[in-house]
Each structure stands twice: as C-alpha cells, then as structure tokens.
Design goal:
Distance between the termini: 49 Å
CATH topology of the largest domain: pyruvate-formate lyase- activating enzyme
Helix content: 40-55%
Structural class: alpha/beta
Strand content: 15-25%
CATH superfamily of the largest domain: tm_1862 like domain
Number of strands: 17
Bound molecules: iron/sulfur cluster
Shape: globular
CATH architecture of the largest domain: Alpha-Beta Horseshoe
CATH class of the largest domain: Alpha Beta
Number of helices: 17
Number of domains: 2
C-alpha cells in the first residue's frame, strides 16, 4: 500500500477507506493533490492499480469564514476520502452505505447537530451532500439519535452505573475479541476471583457512599457471567444487595449470553438477586454455523432458555445476533432473525461480524462476508424491526467490519437500555469492577479512564492495586 497526499493529509481516514477497497496483497498506489482556493476545494486523486491508472477530479464549494477549525478539518478530510472513493469505485464497485462518514458513533454526530439547533432537513443535507450517506442509513442515524437523546435526558443527577466483568467462558468462540478466558484453562482461578470481586464490591460501595452518589444501573458482563456456578452468582448478588441501595435501580442486567451455561437455578438466583434484564444470545439459529464458530448450544436450547426465563418472570430479554458469520448467506441470516422474532424478545441487537485479524480467521476456516450481503442483512433487519415495532436506540461501528457497517440495538417501547447508551455516549460515570472493565469518570466534557486487569490471574495477584485505583476515583470525582 502506498498513499501519498499533497496539500492536505488525513492518513488515518485514507487508510481506513483504502482497506475497504483493497487487500494487503494487491499492488495499489494512491496519489492525491489537495487545493483550497477562492472558496473552492479541489482534490485530484490518482490510483495506480496494477498497470492501469484511475482518477477522480473532485470540486466542492466551501466557505471557511467563521468556521471552527475542527469543522474545516472534517470538510477537507471528507473531500479527500470522497475523491479517493470515487476513483476506487471505478476499479471495484463497492457500495458504501455510510459514504465517507468515519468514526464509531454516527448517531452522535446527528445528536450534536440537533443540539446545535440544526433542523432535520439541514442534518439530512449534511449527511447526504457532504458524507454521501445512503437514505436508509440517514433515517437509521436520525432515529437512533432521537431515541438516545431521550434516554440521556433521563439520566439522574449524581447517579452512576456499575459494570462487573466476569472474564470466563466455557470455550472460546472463533471470532472472540472480548476479555475472556476459557475455563478449561482458567477455571482454577474462579474461586479466588469471586472472593476478590466481593471485596471489590465492598470497596466500591464505600467509594459511592463517600461521593454521595447512587447506583442507577448495574451490568454484569464478560465473558459469560453465567459460566459461574449458581453458588458464586448467588454470592455476588447477595453482596450487591447488601452493599448498594437498589431502590433507585432502573436496570440490572445479567449477560446470560451462552445458552449452554444457563440453568433454571441460575436464572432464579438472578431474579431473586434483583436482575431485571437478561441477555440470551443465539448469534445465529443455524446449527451448522453454531458448530463452526465454536458454540456448544443448539437453536432448541435457545428456545428452552427463553421459556425458562419467561416462566421465572423475566419480562425484559435481549437477544444478540451476528450478521456475516462464516458461510452464512443473507437467507440464513434472515431465517435466524425471523426465528428470534418468534421468541418475542423485548430487545434485539444485531452486530456485524468484525474480525481483528482476517488472515488468521481465514486460516481457521472462516471467510468474511461481502459488504453487499452484509448490507442486505442489515436492511432486512431495519425493516423487520420496524414491522415488529422495535426501534433502534443505540448504534456503534467497529473497525474491521465489512463495508464499514454498524451494530444496532433495537427495542420495544419502554425497554430501551440506558446503560447501553451510556457506554456509547459517555454521559454517566461507570465504575468497573472485576476483570477487564474500564471505569469511565464523566466530569462534564472531561473523561478519565481507569482500567482493571483483564487476566483473572493478574487481577488476583495485583488486587491491592485494584483497590488503590478505587481510591483514585474519590480524588478525581470528589474534587
Ligand atoms: S461467548 Fe463471547 S466472550 Fe465468550 S468466547 Fe464467545 S465471543 Fe468471547
């Protein structure tokens, strides 16, 4: 890969779009020349692809007078990436539904524009004209921005969220990029890990009390928390109930992600412990794919878990699906989504397959899905969710997703998760406990992060440091 930019440089963004068109093995050189004269931007891009040359000559009228430096930078960057994509599309007809919009939170851009007082038509114009976003994605981003705005406004003053990371899973999935360890290797640490975690809850409760704050949301994630036995889960729930005032709790979520770890006893312990939202994650309802990605459950087990959870009284269930799993066609994905809809979860979250290292993923037998198919799956999701009265309310993008596409949480009215929006929009302090979580201290526009150790062995060994870090929270937030 060779990218040379004259006049204006946006190396990060150029590389991002380059990777959407070209593989590492391809012989490609890119030269671009940027000029801003008499309120006109001109970008000339030339791509040498093998023995052929493709070019684009892009012009855009833009008046930089009285414009913020950051806005000017964004416009210049959009002009360069647009010119590059226009030239690259002459080589490969790759559809970019998000146009040249970068960043992990497209809805945030829309919400900020709304807060600046821009009307819907102006926002649509910016997305379409400057970023070349498709109509479907514009309507998605607008809807997400409106819904998340309502949730952000409902965050209580002096409230915080608590995240508890349980970094254990029964086995490791093919595509995993989360903080997790396979209990066949790390199971020996579980007992000590839980003991330390209980002490960390004690310490955190003291910190929250000293700060005069209260807990609005609790999220137990991982890993797969239900990998722990019912005995350990009950100890954690008991401690949470003893130490925190749960009267003001809005959401208490337990990721019961993998159906092979869910039992009636664990669900009952969660219900008694105050959990009011759980996640049961099929990822796909196709048995062949489940085997390929290293999951040990069957679609039937998903249905049984839903039945058990409903019987025990859970009335807020989320189900995660992944679009673009190895060898899945759009029809296979549509089948999974239709089957999940039949289970009637209040929330459905559709992630796009993201693979950090595509080469090693291929070596393990995986093949990345074409962006065009991925987008077909997502458009089907958008339509099905609308038909079943579920609204999109949080959205983020990750690196290494085919076609630069998005992950979206959909919810029935009244079941949207404020915690999920917090994670994306960073409007409420989140104190993280356990393995791999990161505390985010929100102080107006400033955010301080404190990281917990990812590995259970390190968490145990360096636990004193974890407690010291909790004291830092008082220093930072207590002024
Ligand atoms: S269940 Fe989730 S955290 Fe656990 S290995 Fe699979 S992808 Fe990773």
């Amino acid at each position: 890969m060779l990218i040379v930019q004259n006049g204006y440089e946006c190396d990060y963004e150029m590389k991002l779009f380059y990777k959407l068109f070209f593989g590492e093995e391809e012989d490609v050189s890119v030269y671009s020349n940027f000029e801003y004269k008499e309120k006109n931007i001109n970008v000339y891009t030339e791509i040498i692809y093998g023995t052929k040359v493709y070019f684009d000559d892009f012009n855009y009228s833009f008046d930089d007078e009285n414009k913020d430096k950051r806005i000017i930078k964004k416009i210049f960057t959009a002009a360069c990436t647009k010119s590059f994509c226009h030239a690259a599309k002459k080589i490969k007809n790759i559809n970019l539904p998000w146009g040249v919009m970068c960043g992990i939170r497209p809805a945030k851009i829309v919400r900020v524009l709304m807060e600046e007082g821009k009307g819907e038509e102006d926002i649509k114009y910016i997305l379409k004209d400057i970023y070349e976003v498709s109509d479907e994605k514009i309507s998605l981003a607008m809807e997400v921005a409106k819904n998340e705005k309502k949730l952000i406004e409902s965050i209580g003053k002096n409230s915080i969220s608590i995240y508890i990371g349980i970094p254990f899973c029964p086995t490791r999935c093919l595509y995993c990029s989360f903080v997790s360890t396979d209990i066949r290797v790390s199971g020996k640490y579980i007992d000590e890990f839980v003991k330390k975690l209980l002490s960390e809850i004690d310490k955190t409760a003291e910190v929250v009390k000293k700060l005069g704050m209260y807990v609005e949301n609790i999220y137990i994630g991982g890993g797969t928390p239900t990998t722990l036995d019912e005995k350990y889960l009950s100890m954690i729930f008991k401690k949470i109930n003893e130490k925190f005032d749960l009267n003001k709790i809005k959401e208490f979520t337990l990721e019961a992600g993998r159906p092979d770890t869910i039992t009636e006893e664990k669900l009952k312990a969660a219900k008694t412990g105050g959990v009011n939202r759980i996640s049961i994650n099929p990822q796909t309802m196709n048995i062949e794919t489940l085997k390929k990605i290293g999951r040990q459950h069957t679609p039937e087990m998903i249905r049984e878990c839903f039945e058990k959870a409903r019987k025990i009284g859970f009335d807020n269930i989320n189900a995660d699906l992944i679009a673009g799993l190895p060898d899945e066609t759009p029809d296979m994905f549509k089948y999974s989504l239709d089957e999940v809809i039949k289970l009637d979860p209040e929330n459905i979250t559709v992630h796009c397959m993201a693979v950090k290292r595509a080469a090693s993923f291929r070596l393990k037998g995986g093949e990345l899905t074409e962006a065009e198919y991925m987008n077909e799956m997502l458009l089907y999701t958008q339509k099905s969710m609308k038909d079943t009265k579920r609204k999109p309310y949080y959205m983020y993008r990750q690196k290494n997703i085919s076609g630069n596409l998005e992950n979206v949480g959909y919810s029935k009215e009244g079941y949207m998760s404020t915690y999920n929006v917090n994670i994306m929009e960073e409007k409420q302090t989140i104190i993280a406990l356990g393995g791999g979580g990161s505390t985010k201290l929100v102080m107006g526009d400033r955010i301080e992060r404190i990281f917990n150790f990812k590995d259970p062995a390190e968490y145990i060994k360096r636990f004193d440091e974890i407690l010291e870090k909790k004291d830092e929270i008082i220093k930072l937030l207590g002024g």
